[in-house]
Amino acid sequence: MATGPSTTERTIGQLVADATHDLEGIVRGEIALAKAEVSTGAKVLGKGAGLLAGAAFLAVIGFVFILHSAAWGIAEWLPVWAGYLIVAVVVLIVGVVLGLLGKKALENARPAPERAIEQAQQTIAVIKSTGSEPATPVGTTGTTTGATGTSGTTSAPGTTSATGTTNGVPPASPTS
C-alpha cells in the first residue's frame, strides 16, 4: 500500500486561491459596511442641514421684523420715512464692515497646503539623492566637520562647492 498524498489534502495553490478569495470577501464586506455607515451618516447630516437652513430662514425673518419694529419705534419721534432711513443706514454700515472684514480674511487666506508641499519636495530630494550621506533640501546649506576638525558647508546633491568638492567628496585625482 502506497502512502502518497491523500485526495482530501489541498495543494498550496488551492490554499493560496482560497485565502485570496476569503480576503477578497472580507474587503468587500468592509467596503459594504463603510458604505452603509456613510449613507446613514449622510442622511443624519442632511436632516441636520435642513433643520439649520430652516432655523436660519426664520432667524432672518425675525431680524427683518426687529428692524421693522425699530423703524416704527424711531417713527415715534421722527417721520416714518426717517425711521426706515436710519435703520437702513445702520444695516448698510454693518454690512459694509462685515464685507471689508470678509475681504481681508480672504486676502490673508492661504488655501495651498504650503507645509505639505515643502515636505513633499524635501521627501523627493531625499529619494533622489544617492550615496551614504543624507541629502540637504534644495536651497539650504548645512555645516559639517571633516576628519581634520575643520568646518565646511555642504550643498544640495549634485552641486560643486567653491573648494572643488562635489557633495563633500574631493575630485578623483587622475592616475598616470
List the helices and strands and how they pair.
Blueprint: H1 12-74, H2 80-108, H3 114-128, E1 142-145, E2 151-154
Antiparallel strand pairs: 1-2
Helix pairs in contact: 1-2
> How much strand content do the residues show?
under 5%
| Terminal Cα span | 78 Å
Shape, please? Answer: elongated
Main sheet overview:
2 strands, antiparallel
The level of helicity is: 55-70%
Which structural class fits the helix and strand makeup? mainly alpha
Q: Strands across the major sheet, in which order?
A: 1-2
Number of strands: 2
How many helix segments? 3
Radius of gyration based on Cα positions: 36 Å
Unreliably modeled segments: 142-156
Write the H/E string, N to C.
HHHEE
Mean pLDDT across the residues is: 75
Explain what this protein looks like in three dimensions:
With 176 residues, the protein is mainly alpha-helical. It has a domain at 12-108. Residues 142-156 have low confidence and may be disordered. Strands 1-2 form a two-stranded antiparallel sheet. The chain starts with 11 loop residues before the first helix and ends in a 22-residue tail after the last strand. The chain contains three helices and two strands; from the N terminus they run αααββ. β1 (142-145) and β2 form a beta hairpin. The chain is elongated and about 105 Å long. It is 61% helix and 5% strand. α1 runs antiparallel to α2 (80-108).
